[in-house]
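User: Can you predict the 3D structure for this chain?
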Amino acid sequence: MASPVTSRAKKLVIVESPTKARTVGRFLGRDFAVEASIGHIRDLPVNRLGVDVEHGFAPHYVIPAKKKEIVKRLRERAKDAAEIYLATDPDREGEAISWHLLEALKLGDGRPVRRVEFHEITREAIREAFGHPRAINERLVEAQQARRILDRLVGYKLSPLLRQKITRKGLSAGRVQSVAVKLIVDREREIRAFVPREYWTIDAYLTRARDRGRRAQPFKASLIQIGGDKAELNTEAEAQAVVRDLEAAHYSVADVRKRETHRSPAPPFTTSTLQQEASRKLGFAAKRTMAVAQQLYEGIALGDEGDVGLITYMRTDSVNVAASAQRQALDYIRERLDEKYLPPSPRVHKTRAKGAQEAHEAIRPTLVTREPDSIKSYLTGEQFRLYRLIWQRFLASQMASAEVLVTTMDVAAGPADAPNQYRLRATESVVTFDGFMRIYTEGLDDGDREPGTEEAIKKSVLPQLEAGDGLRLTRLEPEQHFTQPPARYTEASLVKALEENGIGRPSTYAPTLTTIQERGYVERVGKQLQPTPLGELVTGLLVQHFPDIVDVGFTADMEEKLDRIANEDVQWVQVLADFYAPFEQTLAIAEQQMPPVSLEPEPAGETCDQCGSPMVIKFGRFGKFIACSQYPACRNAKSFVVKVGTRCPRCGGNLVEKRTRRRRLFYSCSNYPTCDFASWQRPLPQELQPCPTCQGLLVEAGRNQARCLQCGATIERPEAPVAVGAG
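Assistant: Here is the predicted structure, written as structure tokens:
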């Protein structure tokens, strides 16, 4: 943190964090003193509502005890400063922090107090910001204040009601968190109600009729039509009847079509897409992603360069890019790659998020020539991986499209008198020009597969054939399948769903995901989010008694109204009044009609080693634990252990989930400390083990891949065996 102001000629700059203060101070020089507020210095009180609902929803802000020394210090610094600059983050939250500083430090004494805003912490951006200071935007402050008060009204009115009606500590409800839990609960109920339907596919492996020996390289064609209709085989008997026909059929090429397709790069990251991609490719939780991104934004010490902000502001829903940054990227592509990788014209990406703040920028590196490998030695492993992801995504977003040649071959099959009785199809996608894919390709959520994606693009497998060419059958492969239920949400797909539905804003995604798990409403199993019995119970009560609060459409409409406050379309007090009047009536009815409920503890599947009674699973401040069902007569309790379903490769014990003191998940042997085996990567289930090369332990290594801890080999992730006829 900067040294104290010693002269009235000094100019005082206030930012949020000490790291940001160091980085900004290095660029401003000796005429400025930079101090940190350590986030918000005022907020609504913790122990009461703090909002006068009878008189215009006036908030009563207080300075928390832990902030009083900070405020005292800042007042002393401000007293001796000739000019004061409020340089908090460039969003509504940052605007509100600046306004609270203005009020709490009593800066309205005639001295210049200016607001400066920059989206990256670089010399050029700071020079530009301080050259064009402005006044605090009162409408942005009102928009943030309305959101804060609305969240307080919902949380402080609903949470006590839940705690009163449900015998469980630590319950809460929230305007965004309750909708997020409902999405997860609804998905789980869809999965439970899902009835698998059997169906069969038939693949034929064919070669050119004239090829023999090594030249006869078979290619796969899948059955798509029977008698001109779509092939639908629902039973093994139906499939076997078709197999018998195809075994005796004549095969020939009916048609060959080739088309050149172009695949455009994904836009640069927003908060939402960064959290999604970091989850898919790096295995980061949303909270972890934002913490690391904050470090990259506020500044990293790069040797002789000192503290440097490596990325632009990481809370944004815009994909806009500054013209100067775009020129940097195009120059880099031209000089470091090749002219052919430049797009015909500079790319302009369009924001899809509802209510996106178009004036903001996307998340990008502050200097595209600062390649990840060139600064790797200055970064932690997490910082390097996230910076590399952001750098690759941004550079790729400005590159030429990839070109893919898609070949579709239709095959006719049938007896001599009905040669077109069956139609099969073979396809291949071959990259003829890699374009942006040379740098980066976007990951996909479970269940998402598109032609032309990195998973679908394969090497050429189809022989050169023309319509009318004869084919020879080498084998047929009928395969039984069952329709699959919708996939459970992951953190990545839940963030995507929240954004698509207009629920929450960039600053709320990570805290929401953290809260719903800490409250015990949702638990993370692998990467999947599953509701707990408590989450389902609370959601059911809210749906019954407060349907608007957990309604996606209502919540999205509320978000839009809050955004309109910033645009001066509506008054913040009116927005709150329109919400609170019916909410208060609903609350009064619920207090009378909501029945008290008791959630029976889930059996833990073991007995108490002190009294022999059954042990049960309970929720505490730090999550699940196991306790004796005879509490308080017996106070035996111990940690809850989640078994991975895989044996330890060293001693044969159970591998279990554990967390570090910083709550980072890892996997270790249940026989610790006798056996000290541990892994950061989740081991695959027992039925997918072991490594086919060395018989070592396989762990998750990204989408559809596994890595062996013993030999280091990366292989395509094996699929769990499915019993024939199951379903």
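The longest helix spans residues 138-165. The CA atoms of residues 239 and 661 lie 56 Å apart.
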